[in-house]
Prior knowledge:
Two copies of one chain form a homodimer.
Chain A: E1 4-9, H1 20-28, E2 31-35, H2 36-39, E3 49-53, H3 58-70, E4 74-79, H4 88-98, E5 107-111, H5 116-124, E6 125-126, E7 132-136, H6 144-156, E8 160-164, H7 174-185, E9 191-196, E10 204-209, E11 222-226, E12 232-236, E13 239-244
Parallel strand pairs in A: 1-4, 1-5, 2-3, 2-4, 6-13, 7-8
Antiparallel strand pairs in A: 8-11, 9-10, 9-11, 12-13
Amino acid sequence: xxxxxAVAGLGPxxxxxxxxxxxxxxxxxxxxxxxxxxxxxxxxxxxxxxHASGNRVEAERSRLALGLAAEGRRVIVVSSGDPGVxxxxxxxxxxxxxxxxxxxxxxxxxxxxxxxMLAASARAGAPLGHDFCAINLSDNLKSWSLIERRLRxxxxxxxxxxxxxxxxxxxxxGFARVLELLRELCEPGRLVIFARAVxxxxxxxxxxxxxxxxxxxxxxxxxxxxGSSRTRRIERNGMPPLVYTPRSATE
Amino acid sequence: xxxxxAVAGLGPxxxxxxxxxxxxxxxxxxxxxxxxxxxxxxxxxxxxxxHASGNRVEAERSRLALGLAAEGRRVIVVSSGDPGVxxxxxxxxxxxxxxxxxxxxxxxxxxxxxxxMLAASARAGAPLGHDFCAINLSDNLKSWSLIERRLRxxxxxxxxxxxxxxxxxxxxxGFARVLELLRELCEPGRLVIFARAVxxxxxxxxxxxxxxxxxxxxxxxxxxxxGSSRTRRIERNGMPPLVYTPRSATE
Lengths: 251, 251
């Protein structure tokens, strides 16, 4: 049996951020499995079978990938960003654990990628330069009360926060509640970065104080970074500001 | 003036994890600046000046890089992992803000890289597959009490935690205190991953329950990942276990 599954991160969008490790796996694969938007990012090639599916079918997609590998195929499961951060790696292991015992013997690897918050942070400056949290704001798989509790604790600890999946058509109101909560917890000048589609031709990066942040500044292609109380902004002539969190902190 | 500074991440160690974007910047640079261990990872090349320095001189190193760029040189500042995560990007912006006004007009970019926790998580499975925190355990630039407070809040929120810089020769005891604290806060079976020098020839990855975790399992080349209460382990025949945090959570 020479089949395998590589759960790979395509990075935030730009070609220059795809690692050589992932390029090699893409070249060796017989099958590419993923959400259609990400499968579309893989160049067509003779002999490469494409299995594109809709959003929110991570479990089916994972079973498909593992099943194909069990038949001896070399399967690359593609995620944007990093597969281990709110993406396909956990779904794959959930499916492995719930599936036939023999799936545990399969060669399954995770190939890391540049996750959205790292690309966003790089574009803005260094807002994640000190301790930080990454929180998925989608309430598909967890309760709103858990999201709220984690936001409260993160702000209490003065972590910077990378907020993934802030807003979608199916959840238009959640992010407005998040901003309301953050306005309760943080000073009004707290810096908020809206980084959309970073490293693609649609890239926009905008930094505003919390009191100017609006729900419609975010969509599903946006990662939002909330600074800590120490996050600073360097103004520049004719260029966007640089936003960074200093390395030192005292209580 | 055609000088620039690119603060670049070399990834965790493996050549196949250096992004093409960083490779291009390395090829275009006239000067490479960094901690000697990371400067050594950059291939020698005719015309490339190397400025290697010791650990803990981030401010001087940043001023050197900005000063060279102001003279028109093309400077790459190298970090391991991602420059925005406990690395050189924040130090560079601190130096820019404190330096001559003209430094703000310089072309300074941050080029993201695969940070240690993403490489470690990929090797172990997907322990960061749900909400998580990244905490620097070095108390060079913050108090022990702040580290302790953040660990308490992170565990209270049931975040997984990536713990950077757990232990060094200068701070041999801090990590023992961290483990003591975590044993107070978490159940004894909580999973802890010690990932050392991932993607290099010295790589070791070891997962143990918290009650078996020992301070000497970590050094400065180790990133430690503490699972959440939901982090699971899939046992496999003749292969290391896979450790992952499921995507769903309820309170």
